[in-house]
Amino acid sequence: MKKLALFCLWPVAMLLFLSTAQGWLWPTLLPREFSLRAWNFVVEQSGGPLVTSLSLAVTVAILSTLISLPAARVLALHSFTGKRLLLWLLFLPLLTQPLASAMGLHGLFLRYGLTDQWMGVLLVHLIPSVPYAALTLMASFSKLDLDLEAQARTLGASKWQVWRHVTGPSIAPGIALALTLSFLMSWSQYLLTLLIGGERILTLPIVLVGFEKSGDGAVAAAMSLLMILPPTLLFVISNWFLRENQSLE
Amino acid sequence: MIRLSDICTGYPGKPVLRDIFIQFPAGQLTSLLGHSGCGKTTLLKVIAGLLTPTSGSLLINGEPADHLPADKREAAMVFQKPLLFPHMSVQENVAFGLRVRRLNPDETKQRVFEMLELLQIGELASRRPSQLSGGQEQRVSLARALVTKPKVLLLDEPFSALDESLREEMRTLLRKVQRELRITTVFVTHDQEEAAQLSDQIVLLLNGTVAQQGTPQEVFSRPRTSQVAAFLGWKVFEGRPVGAVFETAAGTFVMPIGGRPTHMAFRPEKLQLKSDGQPGTIEEIVHWGRGRRLRVMLHAGVPLLVELPGFTEDFKVGDPICVEIPVEEICWFAENWC
């Protein structure tokens, strides 16, 4: 366990070291000096990209979960003609390279003026995140006993109350997982953002790659650490939520 | 009172229920008895509003209920599985129906505890469903349905998954609670003994239609058709009248005067062992709780099941035996067997 923790923390520690190292050039064994220059720069400059990235990821997480809920329910619990085809269509973006579909969409987005727009980037982020959210929710729905809903109805619960008190809580772990996964899909997206957002919509990955290319390793390291923070927090929260939910069963 | 008129369900060419007309008397417990798959649960779902019939009408306490959604019918259902909400405690499960009706918390709490006491599960209030036994789960499920004071209580074989002694205990409890609260109750079962023990009325469903309705005594002692008789465990023989007697594979019997029967039936426990009866051979002896069942092959080539109370006489497989069918115990039917 300790070895595993060390294995996971080592890169983080390296990044922390790199982000404060100044003038670390060959053949010196240690950096000339340590400074918070990169961190000052990141704090001053990354506010905009951080807000863009967060707003995109949160919206993508909510939207893909909302879109996937009815689809996953129908696909998991009902059988109908054309179901297999629908499943294939839904998961096609996972099987094909997302870049391929995004290139195709680029023309369409140009025509509707969605390129270089926050809205355009949001839409293109939904392409890979919806299938993941749907897949996660399908697993949750397939374990749902529909008789529980019928039972609640005969006890006097309206359709909304059934959802609020019975169905929702039953699939809550699935919803938490779908939100987390789609958040991460959007948060770490580089290629699709670059393609549709040009360099107008600046998210953290776009800015990070820019600094990495320009050779300012300290800023890139500081920014990488900033990028790790929200997903780690989210992971801890959803993990806690899942464990809490499991202990109820 | 619940009144179903001309209820039909299913698909064209594959009906589940056909022209159902039943009145369930107010405050009484009526059993819906029938084979599995004969449409009993479907009928219950029609009353509960979980299934829309293709035609027909439904009145609950004199008011049309056809267009009411399930949550507005006040017809609480208890399923075969307890279906407790896993994320709620026993107390929260029982309070569910009151919570969705937005009853004030104090009254909710009081009614929940009264109901838990009535069903003798007061000490389980704070437990989770996963910590309950099968019998306890079904009691909670029953309490959850009763606490809403429904107009109708619908029970879909609620005790079939429990072991025999527990089932007996639950039946007694249900009967006591139902009499105390006087809720119009429909109880679905395939178990004749259960229906006989619990019901004020029995509705017998065969192949999606009502085959007979009446008190347990009427239904069990006077089956209306040979099909009903066969379902209730009577031995049915087809035959034809020849002069004053009725000829069957099991022999000839004196007919009632003026009748033209097509079938006759009798209960296996009414058969008697008499030296001047029909000769046969014992093929199998099955012991059951209160006696024995002999499978006898008559020399005429007809198998009969003879039920004997007690164990006084000594029998062996292969022994010759004579069986008499007492004429006064025979039920006669004039109909086309289908």
Task: Please characterize this protein's 3D structure.
The complex is a heterodimer of chains A (249) and B (338). Helices cover 80% and strands 2% of the residues of chain A. Chain A has 11 helices and 2 strands; from the N terminus they run H-E-E-H-H-H-H-H-H-H-H-H-H. Chain A has helices spanning 2-20, 37-45, 47-77, 83-95, 98-111, 118-142, 146-154, 159-187, 191-197, 204-214, 217-248; strands spanning 21-22, 33-34. The longest helix of chain A has 32 residues, at 217-248. The radius of gyration of chain A is 22 Å and the shape is globular. The two termini of chain A are 28 Å apart. With 338 residues, chain B is of the alpha+beta class. Chain B has 2 domains: 2-225, P-loop containing nucleotide triphosphate hydrolases (Rossmann fold), CATH 3.40.50; 235-334, Nucleic acid-binding proteins (OB fold (Dihydrolipoamide Acetyltransferase, E2P)), CATH 2.40.50.140. In chain B, 25% of the residues lie in helices and 36% in strands. Chain B has 8 helices and 19 strands. Chain B has helices at 40-48, 90-99, 105-118, 134-146, 164-181, 192-198, 216-221, 226-231, and strands at residues 2-11, 14-24, 29-33, 55-60, 63-64, 75-78, 152-156, 184-189, 201-206, 209-214, 235-242, 245-248, 251-254, 263-266, 272-288, 291-298, 303-309, 320-324, 331-333. Chain B has a 6-stranded mixed β-sheet with strand order 6-7-8-3-9-10, with helices on both faces. In chain B, 38% of the residues are buried. The chains are: A mainly alpha (249), B alpha+beta (338). Chain A binds chain B through residues 145, 147-148, 150-158, 161, 165-166, 169-170, 245, 248-249, and chain B through 48-50, 69-77, 79, 81, 83, 85-87, 96-97, 99-101, 128, 130, 144-145, 148, 154.
